[in-house]
Amino acid sequence: MDLPALADFNLVATHGGFGRASRSSGRPKATLSRKVSELEAALGVRLIDRGSRTLRLTDEGRALHELTQGPLGEIAEAEQAVAAGASVPRGKLRVSAPIVLAHVLLPKVAAGFVLTYPQVELEIVAEDRKVDPVEDNYDLVIRVDPNHDERLVGRRIMEDERCLVAPPGMHVALRLEHEDAAQMVPAVGHTATPTDILWRIRTNDTVRVLSPHFRLRFSSFLMIRDAVLAGAGIALMPKLLVNEDIAAGRLVSWGAEYGPKVEIWALQNSRRLSSSKVRAFLEALTSIA
Questions:
Q1: CA gyration radius for the chain?
Q2: Which of 11, 63, 108, 265 is deepest in the core (most CB within 10 A)?
Q3: Is 15 helix (H, G, I), strand (E, B) or coil?
Q4: d(Cα 192, Cα 284) in Å, to the nearest integer?
Q5: How far is CA 159 from CA 56, 113, 145, 177, 262, in A?
Q6: Is 196:187 a contact under the CB 8 Å cutoff?
Q7: 174 to 203, 210, 213: CA distances (angstroms)
Q8: Separation between Cα atoms, residue 180 and residue 166, nearest integer Å
Q9: Helix H segments across the chain?
């Protein structure tokens, strides 16, 4: 495939027309049109419908644009880095992260990162939905206990666990697992948590089974923490979110969830080369563990 012709096609597709692409790049409109026609002839498919007044990509053109605009951008970035004599992180870096992690840990990491790499424009979006790094145009996505996805590669950046926390004045005599049926306790929960869930809590060498009675439900762990601090009940929370409250005595830990720890991963599109800015940010994330 002719890479310069492919670059011209992506330029036209990005700007939505030959005229706009010409004005943006300074390349003659006729040259851009010829290069796209040559690319179409080489591939044996039509990439752009030229019959309408506005540019419209064909299905094949849209697929080619989506699959190649990222790699072409990385090639341009690599070319700039080599020309500068070093692979210096630069350009826009978009990251999606769970709300809790984004609020509790990432601000300090992000601030230190942009101070170290001033040529990077870092954008972190806090969201709990499962994003697609390709379709949503993210360089990195941070996920908790991610399922296997062959389209994504990355590294584990840290571990965490869920712990049961309560306000200091709340006292409930917890029974051991084998003593009786699940013990009902007043609780604050997440809106996504099933109503019939049971909590298995490990305290030293013992395990207790609790049946939470949810007095309140919130869609955010930050709101759940505030409700527990206000005395509304107990809650099973990410430890990284309540560590400071436990250390300061604002909350009391009643134990951790029984089972393996939670793994937090930073993932990227497996089809794209790992750029210097992504590698540098991964190193910064690893340092928080």
A1: 26
A2: 11
A3: helix
A4: 31
A5: 47, 21, 10, 26, 6
A6: no
A7: 10, 8, 15
A8: 22
A9: 3-15, 18-25, 29-43, 59-83, 99-104, 106-116, 221-229, 239-248, 276-286
Express each pLDDT in 186-199 by its tens digit. 999 999 999 899 99
Rounded distance between C-alpha atoms, residue 109 and residue 282, angstroms: 11
Convert the pLDDT of each residue in 239-257 to its tens digit. 999 999 999 999 999 999 9
The answer to whether the beta carbons of residues 188 and 217 sit under 8 Å apart is yes
Number of Cα atoms under 13 Å in the Cβ half of residue 222: 10
> Quick check: 251 and 245 in contact, CB under 8 A?
yes
Task: Give the span between the Cα atoms of 131 and 141, in whole angstroms.
Answer: 8
Q: Which amino acid would we find at residue 215?
A: R
What confidence category does residue 146 fall into, taking pLDDT thresholds of 50, 70 and 90? confident
For residues 44 and 218, what is the distance between their CA atoms, to the nearest angstrom?
A: 54
1/68 Cα distance (integer angstroms): 12
Q: Which residues contact 197 (CB under 8 A, 6 or more apart)?
A: 212
List, in sequence order, the alpha helices (H) in 56-180: 59-83, 99-104, 106-116
pTM summary value: 0.64
* Spatial distance between the Cα atoms of 104 and 258, rounded to a whole number of angstroms: 24
- Please identify which residue in the block is written with the tokens 């560590």: 243
